């Protein structure tokens, strides 16, 4: 948490001035009862209208100076908290962008997004409030007590008794209710959960006619939430009445003690009124302080989460310079590679060794969870192998600068992601300086040219967030085009033709084979038809490589491959036989 | 002013829901009157006590004791009244809110699929959760501060008038100033907050897009460009935030300044009156504490009004959901389909999701009992739409669909749907145990039945290997289960109730071969003797079908058996041949 302070550094001046001006204003406020006491004791007692007028003038002047002070304080507080939050946001965004895949997996992207958008806003308002008010309230409470002491020590002892008692009630209720509010939140989350579940599963729920059951369950969760809210409300509702009784008892005793002191000539009537006013001020400030502390506790919790997100260290670092070039026609080589996800569980890959020559096509096939995607993601170092080595051109991938490494690799991920903008902007992700011809070439190779041609605005057609305005197949082809525009040395298609029909899939494979720059291609697929033609096929089963060779070789030697092949070509084979 | 009108009708609806708790509301108002009256009486008592403390020798202890005792008693009763009032207000608020949430959820259960498909889930969830929550806050504040505020203003006026009329006049004339200032600032800052909101929304969207897809961002080394864009948005946001926060925060000092001026004015007129002898020092002291209190409820009420307006906006959104037209209810003479033969006919069906973009133009279909129908075609050809129509998730625009000769619009939805077993490609499991998920269609199934169904669906093996077997709790959407396992569970669910007709949506990919074979076997088992519609991706499934429907752009362009269609050399033949070409 302390680390966050350094983002405050640029706003140190504002961070000090804001509370300072606020305290100045509070001190002025503390003078008011004294001035009023003078009006009573001197002005009214002597019937001196001029004196009264001058003292009321002082009151108005105090108010005016107070206004200036507090506006100044508000300005500095706003500037410091907004500046601090902006800096924190920017830092956190950069930090999250630098995190490796495995850190993202363990943290969860949803959580990280919430840190930037939700938590930092809370921190900002908490900081703003704290700068203005956190010192002010205790200052007024103790200031009022000290002012009381300057009037009369014995009468002021009442303050010494009342303040701690009030604090116990106020903070006791608060300490009890903060964890209770967390429980309320948890129950609210339950209500939220069932609502979301009912939206995503609406078809199944209606198909099974489960509406009534769901309604009943929602009712139960909703009732549980209401019940807890009522319990918490009952206790929190006691805070104001309890403090109210205490302060009035305090006032009663104070007046009585005041009466004794006036009787013995130590105090004047006006001073008793002043003491009474100080007591009232304390009540107001303590209640303010309690609600302030609740807000600040929330903000601190958010700050803690932000700080924890900043503490997540990226565990992936590239080399600073390119490794020495080695003369070889080996493009990619895996040497006894083992890999396990940071989230735990069995290793996703183990004992993987193979090599691919420049310009060759390698197919990777296997069931879900067999490790296909994990395998290809080790090539551009999205993850690091936990054992063994991955080489590109005979240099360990860890010896390349990360940027240069990823520059060499064109990746078409399983999930076809496009970004909000235009088709042109999306293609430029692959190559910022791509010309019109290059774009058209890549689109046509990716079988995506027809998509663009069909749109009146062509390359400048808008793409909605996540490419929602395009079909799954269109998105896949555009993501392929985006990778091709890089003219990568190594092209990886991670099950990225699954939404294409067979005819388009075939045309795509043909145009990839004809690419002028002859990339080394990795095709990950569930479909035997997509990889049949590859120079080399790796068959994965539960993280192990159970076969490596051409289609014909594997049909002879690899039972898992045969099983996959027959499950998809069963009829055909039977008929041929 | 149409906006105000909308607010008014929302307000009426809110009041209508509060009316259920009218006894509580009356009690709450009574208690707040007691509380306000007594708490206003306290400063007078204190003033009277002070009036008996004049100078050495002139202190009337008996009178003081009397007034002080009164203070203690009055304060105690006032506090009790306030506490009870708070409790009642809490209970009213949370019960009203509970009712509204229940209403909203009930409506959700009855909304047509067209509404649910067209609205992002997050938006609907945020209405039922966040909007209702904010509405609760506003309502509670309204209950607890509106009446007390108004009563305090009236009470204070009466008490002040009873003590001294001219000073009261000074207070009454000066106080509206602070309200005026507050309103002035609020109006000026409104547009600043709107701008801040826009900037914030833009930033959130950007962050969600880029962090949500960080793997792609990194694959294309796009981090630098993103940072620059982020900082641009961030700069705009911090500028608009600073403006909005600073200018709106002037409200508090400004109103307090005016309150202080009122205080000084009361001090001045009060002291002059005291010199003239028309008010005692105790009276003046009471007056001063009134002057302090008098402006407070005005500020509170103006706070309550903004808060309440927000709450009404939220309520409006909730009511919009609650009042969304429901699915057309079942016809009053709709019959209950008991156990269908499974004869399904479609006659000149036309359908579109969007009025001016026809999807299905004229679809005819004649399926005999027990037939297997494979539906194939490129993405977006209308396969899912056909399922939607068969299950009556949507109603046809023209033409008709019938089961066993009865138009499905004349069959109750529940009974129609009970006759279908549906396994969708997008598996959906609810939070709960494996068992809960399996028995969805047959809650009273015995253990034997469940296990038999699981065995038939090839899910028994993996279920027993889970840490707690059938009692393993799975999270929302299946949690740690693999896609294939989820699919098998969904099949088990249908296997348990064995309805006479089936709708199966084959997964396109991402299931491993062995599980895939299990699923194929399970499907085959299910389809025995049942009319089945299969959105098919596997050739084996397609070839085994009694009828293949080839769909394109919403209509059936070819219909027949595999061999016939291949021989015809049309769209299907092209689709089929492309898979086997090298």
Task: Break the fold down into its secondary structure elements and pairings.
The complex is a heterodimer of chains A (577) and B (582).
Chain A: H1 12-46, H2 49-97, H3 101-107, H4 109-134, H5 136-151, H6 153-200, H7 202-207, H8 211-236, H9 239-263, H10 269-311, E1 330-339, E2 349-357, E3 361-366, H11 372-377, E4 387-392, E5 395-396, H12 402-408, E6 409-412, E7 421-422, H13 423-428, H14 436-445, H15 449-453, E8 462-463, H16 472-484, E9 490-494, H17 502-513, E10 520-525, H18 528-531, E11 536-541, E12 544-549, H19 551-557, H20 559-576
Parallel strand pairs in A: 3-10, 3-11, 6-9, 9-10
Antiparallel strand pairs in A: 1-2, 1-4, 4-5, 7-8, 11-12
Chain B: H1 2-18, H2 22-51, E1 53-55, E2 58-59, H3 61-110, H4 113-118, H5 121-163, H6 165-174, H7 176-212, H8 214-219, H9 223-249, H10 251-276, H11 281-322, E3 344-351, E4 360-367, E5 372-376, H12 383-390, E6 398-403, E7 406-407, H13 413-418, E8 420-423, E9 432-433, H14 434-438, H15 447-456, H16 460-465, E10 473-474, H17 483-497, E11 501-505, H18 513-527, E12 531-535, H19 539-544, E13 547-552, E14 555-560, H20 562-568, H21 571-580
Parallel strand pairs in B: 5-12, 5-13, 8-11, 11-12
Antiparallel strand pairs in B: 1-2, 3-4, 3-6, 6-7, 9-10, 13-14
């Amino acid at each position: 948490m302390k680390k966050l302070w350094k983002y405050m550094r640029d706003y140190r001046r504002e961070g000090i001035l804001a509370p300072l001006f606020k305290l100045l204003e509070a001190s002025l406020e503390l003078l008011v009862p004294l001035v009023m006491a003078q009006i009573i004791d001197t002005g009214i007692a002597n019937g001196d209208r001029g004196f009264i007028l001058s003292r009321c003038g002082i009151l108005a002047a105090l108010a005016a100076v107070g206004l200036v002070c507090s506006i100044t304080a508000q300005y500095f507080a706003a500037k410091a908290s907004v500046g601090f939050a902006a800096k924190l946001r920017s830092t956190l965004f950069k930090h999250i962008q630098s995190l490796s895949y495995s850190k993202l997996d363990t943290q969860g992207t949803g959580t990280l997004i919430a840190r930037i958008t939700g938590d930092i806003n809370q921190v900002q308002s908490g900081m703003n409030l704290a700068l203005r008010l956190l010192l002010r309230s205790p200052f007024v409470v103790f200031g009022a007590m000290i002012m009381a002491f300057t009037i009369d020590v014995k009468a002021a002892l009442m303050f010494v008794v009342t303040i701690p008692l009030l604090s116990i009630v106020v903070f006791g209720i608060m300490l009890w209710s903060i964890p209770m509010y967390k429980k309320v939140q948890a129950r609210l989350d339950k209500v939220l959960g069932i609502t979301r579940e009912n939206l995503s599963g609406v078809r199944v729920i209606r198909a099974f006619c489960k509406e009534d059951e769901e309604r009943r369950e929602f009712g139960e969760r909703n009732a549980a939430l209401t019940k807890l809210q009522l319990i918490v409300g009952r206790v929190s509702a006691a805070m104001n009445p309890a403090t109210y009784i205490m302060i009035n008892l305090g006032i009663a005793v104070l007046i009585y003690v005041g009466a004794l002191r006036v009787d013995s000539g130590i105090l004047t009537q006006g001073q008793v009124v002043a003491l009474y006013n100080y007591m009232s001020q304390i009540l107001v400030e303590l209640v303010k302080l309690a609600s302030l502390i609740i807000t600040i506790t929330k903000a601190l919790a958010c700050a803690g989460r932000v700080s924890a997100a900043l503490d997540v260290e990226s565990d992936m670092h590239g080399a600073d310079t390119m490794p020495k070039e080695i003369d070889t026609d080996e493009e990619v080589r895996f040497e006894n590679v083992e890999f396990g996800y940071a989230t735990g569980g069995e290793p996703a890959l183990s004992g993987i060794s193979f090599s691919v020559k420049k310009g060759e096509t390698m197919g990777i096939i296997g069931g879900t969870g067999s490790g296909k995607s994990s395998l290809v993601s080790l090539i551009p170092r999205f993850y690091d192998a936990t054992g063994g080595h991955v080489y590109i051109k005979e240099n360990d991938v860890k010896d390349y600068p990360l940027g240069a490494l990823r520059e060499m690799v064109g990746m078409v991920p399983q999930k076809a992601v496009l970004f909000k903008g235009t088709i042109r902007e999306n293609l430029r992700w692959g190559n910022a300086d791509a010309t019109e011809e290059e774009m058209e070439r890549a689109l046509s190779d990716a079988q995506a040219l027809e998509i663009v041609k069909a749109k009146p605005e062509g390359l400048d057609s808008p793409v909605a967030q996540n490419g929602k305005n395009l079909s799954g197949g269109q998105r896949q082809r555009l993501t392929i085009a985006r990778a091709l525009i890089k003219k990568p040395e190594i092209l990886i298609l991670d099950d990225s033709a699954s939404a294409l029909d067979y005819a388009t899939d075939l045309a795509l494979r043909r145009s990839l084979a004809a690419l002028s720059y002859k990339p080394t291609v990795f095709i990950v697929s569930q479909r035997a038809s997509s990889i049949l033609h590859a120079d080399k096929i790796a068959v994965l089963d539960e993280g192990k490589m159970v076969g490596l060779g051409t289609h014909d070789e594997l049909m002879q030697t690899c039972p898992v491959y045969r099983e996959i092949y027959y499950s998809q070509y069963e009829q055909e084979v039977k008929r041929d036989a | 002013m149409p906006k105000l009108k909308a607010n008014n009708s929302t307000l009426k609806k809110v009041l209508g829901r509060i009316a259920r708790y009218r006894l509580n509301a009356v009690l709450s108002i009574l208690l707040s009157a007691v509380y306000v009256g007594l708490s206003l009486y306290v400063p007078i008592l204190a003033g009277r006590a002070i009036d008996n403390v004049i100078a050495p020798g002139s202190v009337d202890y008996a009178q003081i004791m009397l007034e002080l005792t009164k203070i203690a008693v009055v304060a105690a009763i006032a506090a009790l009244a306030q506490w009870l009032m708070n409790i009642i207000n809490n209970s009213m608020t949370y019960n009203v809110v509970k009712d509204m949430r229940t209403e909203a959820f009930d409506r959700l259960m009855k909304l047509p699929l067209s509404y649910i498909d067209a609205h992002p889930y997050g938006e609907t969830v945020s209405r039922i959760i966040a909007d209702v929550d904010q509405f609760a806050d506003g309502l509670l504040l309204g209950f607890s501060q509106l009446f007390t505020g108004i009563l305090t203003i009236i009470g204070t006026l009466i008490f002040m008038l009873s003590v001294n009329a001219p000073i009261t006049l000074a207070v009454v004339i000066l106080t509206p100033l602070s309200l005026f200032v507050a309103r002035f600032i609020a109006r000026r800052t409104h547009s600043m907050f709107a701008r801040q909101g826009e900037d914030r929304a833009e930033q959130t969207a950007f962050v969600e897009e880029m962090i949500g897809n960080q793997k792609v961002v990194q694959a294309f080394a796009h981090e630098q460009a993103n940072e620059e864009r982020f900082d641009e948005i961030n700069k705009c946001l911090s500028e608009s935030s600073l403006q909005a926060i600073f200018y709106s925060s002037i409200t508090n000092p400004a109103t307090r300044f005016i309150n202080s001026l009122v205080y000084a004015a009361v001090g001045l007129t009060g002291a002059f009156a005291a010199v003239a002898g028309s008010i005692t020092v105790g009276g003046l002291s009471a007056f001063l504490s009134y002057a302090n209190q008098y402006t407070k409820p005005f500020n509170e009420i103006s706070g309550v009004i903004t808060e309440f307006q927000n709450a009404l906006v939220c309520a409006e959104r909730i009511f919009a959901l609650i009042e969304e037209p429901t699915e057309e209810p079942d016809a009053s003479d709709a019959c209950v389909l008991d156990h269908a033969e499974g004869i399904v006919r479609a006659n000149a069906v036309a359908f579109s999701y969007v009025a001016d973009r026809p999807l299905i133009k004229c679809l005819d279909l004649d399926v005999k009992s027990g037939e297997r129908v494979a539906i194939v075609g490129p993405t977006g050809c209308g396969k899912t739409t056909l399922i939607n129509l068969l299950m009556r998730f949507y109603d046809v625009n023209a033409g008709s669909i019938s089961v066993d000769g009865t138009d499905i619009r004349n069959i109750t939805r529940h009974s129609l749907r009970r006759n279908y077993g549906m396994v969708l490609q997008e598996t959906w499991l609810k939070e709960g145990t494996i068992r809960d998920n399996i028995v969805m269609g047959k809650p009273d199934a015995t253990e034997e039945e469940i296990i038999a169904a699981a065995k038939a669906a090839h899910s028994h093996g993996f279920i027993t290997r889970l840490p707690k077997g059938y009692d393993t709790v799975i999270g929302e959407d299946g949690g740690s289960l693999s896609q294939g396992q989820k699919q098998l569970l969904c099949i088990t669910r249908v296997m348990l109730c064995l309805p006479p007709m089936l709708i199966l949506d084959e997964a396109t990919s991402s299931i491993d071969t062995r599980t895939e074979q299990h699923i194929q076997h399970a499907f085959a088992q299910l389809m025995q003797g049942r009319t089945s519609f299969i959105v098919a991706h596997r050739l084996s499934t397609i070839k085994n079908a009694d009828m293949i429907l080839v769909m394109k752009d919403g209509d059936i362009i070819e219909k027949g058996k595999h061999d016939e269609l291949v021989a015809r050399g049309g769209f299907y033949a092209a689709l089929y041949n492309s898979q086997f070409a090298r």
